[in-house]
């Protein structure tokens, strides 16, 4: 009986997580003219006009789909994110996007979840801009609130590399209307990796990876117990 109740509760929680993911909306991007960034400045900036979407947004995710193509290997594998910003300023060039006032909705410490992708050989201990264990964002290095990345593999700074098929998700501190809202983010190196990445918006926060994993583990344990009981007759 207890196992049955736990299974039902876990299934409900898992369904809620799946629902949050399924309601994510892909974003259409346009590349702005010019480049910005640190030294050297080689960050391309992309804009998404969210006005036409309607509704609210509280989660933003970027997933690399580069399929081992483009960019540098090792710790710089996959999509390299310089910065991300939500603003009511409608910009036409990279310099404007870099200087535009952003909404204070991002929590780059507690509200950001990083799932590292794989590295192209030769591999490094972890992806650039990630934390000590390689599975968190180190925003003291990445500084995702600023378009300040050094577009160099010799003196890198101010960005995070996702790795091949890696993902970074941001839960905003509160939901915000998409009316009159623009999303900007920077691709270090301007090498076209953004074309092989998917950017999605969610009206609700994304589930934390640890919570999702625990739910899956719980379902696996309960399923095993249930099968054993059935086998015993």
Notes on the protein architecture:
- The chain is α+β, with helices and mostly antiparallel strands.
- The protein folds into 2 domains: 1-23 and 207-233, no CATH class; 25-203, no CATH class.
- It has helices at 2-22, 94-99, 139-142, 209-232; strands at residues 25-26, 30-31, 43-49, 56-64, 80-87, 112-115, 160-161, 167-177, 182-188, 197-202.
- The protein has a 5-stranded antiparallel beta sheet with strand order 1-10-4-8-6, with helices on one face. A 5-stranded antiparallel beta sheet has the order 2-3-9-5-7.
- Residues 1-22, 211-219 and 221-233 have low confidence and may be disordered.
In a few lines, what is going on in this structure?
The chain is an alpha+beta fold and 233 residues long.
């Amino acid at each position: 009986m207890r196992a049955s109740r736990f299974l039902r509760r876990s299934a409900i929680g898992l369904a809620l997580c799946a629902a949050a993911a399924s309601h994510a909306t892909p974003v259409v991007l346009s590349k702005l003219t010019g480049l910005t960034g640190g030294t050297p400045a080689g960050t391309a900036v992309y804009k998404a006009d969210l006005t036409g979407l309607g509704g609210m947004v509280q989660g933003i995710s970027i997933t690399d789909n580069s399929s081992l193509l483009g960019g540098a290997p090792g710790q710089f594998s996959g999509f390299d994110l310089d910065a991300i910003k939500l603003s009511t300023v409608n910009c036409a060039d990279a310099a404007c996007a870099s200087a535009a006032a952003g909404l204070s909705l991002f929590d780059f410490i507690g509200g950001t979840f990083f799932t590292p992708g794989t590295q192209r050989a030769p591999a490094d201990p972890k992806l650039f801009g990630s934390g000590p264990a390689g599975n968190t964002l180190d925003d003291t290095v990445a500084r995702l609130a600023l378009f300040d990345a050094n577009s160099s593999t010799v003196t890198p700074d101010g960005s995070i590399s996702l790795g091949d098929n890696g993902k970074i998700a941001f839960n905003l501190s509160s939901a915000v209307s998409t009316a009159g809202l623009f999303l900007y983010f920077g691709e270090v190196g301007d090498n076209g990796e953004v074309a092989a990445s998917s950017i999605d918006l969610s009206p609700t926060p994304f589930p934390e990876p640890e919570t999702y994993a625990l739910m899956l583990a719980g379902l696996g344990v309960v399923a095993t117990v249930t099968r054993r009981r059935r086998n015993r007759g």
